[in-house]
Structure formats: C-alpha cells, structure tokens
Amino acid sequence: MSFTDTPLDFRTPELDALASVVIPERHFELSAEDARDRYFTDTSKLDAKQLVHDRFRTNPLALHDHLIAALDLRGTEELLDLGCGNGEMLARIRPYLAAGHLTAFDIAPAALDAARQRLDGVATPCDFVEGSADDLRAFADDSFDRVMAVYMAHYVTDLDACFAEVRRVLRPEGRFVLATDRTDSMVEMWDVHFAALRDMNAPEALFRATPKGRISLSNGTDQLAPFFASIERVDWQDQLQFGKAEHFMAFYRSCDHCCASSKPGADLPPAFFAELEERVHARVQASIARTGYFALTKYTGHLICS
Length: 306
Prior knowledge:
With 306 residues, the protein is α/β, with parallel strands linked by helices. The protein has a single domain (11-305), classed as Vaccinia Virus protein VP39 (Rossmann fold, 3-Layer(aba) Sandwich). Helices cover 38% and strands 19% of the residues. The chain has helices at 13-22, 32-39, 44-55, 63-71, 88-93, 109-118, 159-169, 187-199, 220-224, 245-254, 270-291, and strands spanning 78-82, 101-106, 126-130, 144-150, 170-181, 231-242, 294-305. It has a 7-stranded mixed sheet, with helices on both faces. Helix 6 links the parallel strand 2 (101-106) and strand 3. Helix 1 packs across helix 8 (187-199). It starts with 12 loop residues before the first helix and ends with a strand. The model has no long low-confidence stretch (mean pLDDT 94).
C-alpha cells in the first residue's frame, strides 16, 4: 500500500470535544441570490480559498484527485458541473475527459466568465449556461453521464427540486457526485472566531455555524435517498497548516469572517470587523508561537449517487 492509499486521520478526542462545545446547531441561511449578488460578483474570494486549500494542505491528494476517483471517468462522458464557480475543478478534470463534453452551469455571470476564460482554447467541447441548480429546464432528459456539485448545494433554494432535476437529466447508468463537509470541519477556525466574538460581546445572531449545515455529510444521504437508489458516502480528511498568521487571515477574510460579514448590518461597521480580525489574529499567532503552526482540520467528502 502506498502512502497516498493510506487514509490520513487527524481526528483526536480533543478535537471531537472541542467541536461538541464550539459548533452551534443553528447555521447561517445563505441563498443562491446571496451567491450571485454578494459573493460572486467576481471570483476573488473563491480564488483565494482555492489557493489556500491547495497551498497549505497536508493530504497529498488534492480535491480534484478525490473528485476524479468519485466520478469514475472513461474519457468520453458528458459532464455537468452545477455551480462551476471559476472553473478550477473543471479545468483539473478536463484532461480525464479529453474526448468528452463539459457543461459549466452557474447562477453568477461573473463565475461563468471566469470559467470561460480558464477553459478558453481547450479542445474538449465546453458549454457555459447561466441558471439556478433547482431549475435545469435548459437540458433534456438523460443528457449527462456525470453531474457534480462541489461545495455549492447549501446555496440552492429548493434542494428537492434540484435533486429531482439532476435525476431527470442524468442517464440511467450515470452518477451524481455531491461534495460537502461535516459540520465540524475546520473547527479550529470557528473556535478562534467565536472566542473573539465573545470577547467583543458580539450580537447573538452571529453565533451560527457554516451554512453547509443545510446539507452535510451527516444529513445528505437522507435528503438524496428519495431520488437515488444507491448513495455511497466517502469521507476524507486534510489539515491546513499555517506557519504565518497572515496567510490564515487572508483565508478567514475570504470566508466572510465565518459568514459574520456575509450580510453586515448598520450595527456592524467596518471597525467591528477590524477589531474582530485583530483579536482572531492574536489567537492564531499565539497558537503558532506554541506549536509552530495553526491547524485547520478538514472533515470532508462526497456522496456518490446513482
């Protein structure tokens, strides 16, 4: 067995205990319109997050490696990427579909423009379609051999409609791969974030978990079961290790301060987030001084549906 075949395990009793007291049951509710009108007016935040996940990972396999294994490609498939974002994953997967066909689908015009630029000039045919993932009327029945939704389903307004549509456009022997996290993923970030908020006596409404709680590895199978006969859950782990606090802070900002700045109100001026960043930075820097790095443990994976 090679090193890359051996599953990495960063989970510890201490992290489990931390998650049990840090991650709240309530989660942020963010919509497809939020994604279109707030987060993806350009792809700078997505670009920044992708760079961090790749640069600071300790798992030798990157996200696209896990997706390629889950998609089980032969090289000629028709693939639909729901919520394609900047096209990074499609570009990584494209060499495995050199004789296939790609369709990039997203609600945000800026994301589609970025994907179009990233895939410009490749020989594999690519279509770029704007729309919402719960309405795939642009596509006929049985149009695709593979459909993937990578860390985007929590934005979809009507998940039942989305999954019914995916089932409709998916060919009988096809597969749908939905990537998402466990709700306790990256608990260390939520820990320093909530600690800083408590020190600031922040509004109670900010103490919420990631919006991925809408559809996580824990509850995803139950939501998908009415639409697919077979659902396989595949878990994998990674740990981002930051040797400098500044690199973590760039990631923290790209995550909208753990969603706290997703919809800033009149009572949360820029000075609030400046103080929040200062307090989070101090905690991260203290961790680096103690151990040499600040870790974010990723509990993530995907659901393979057919």
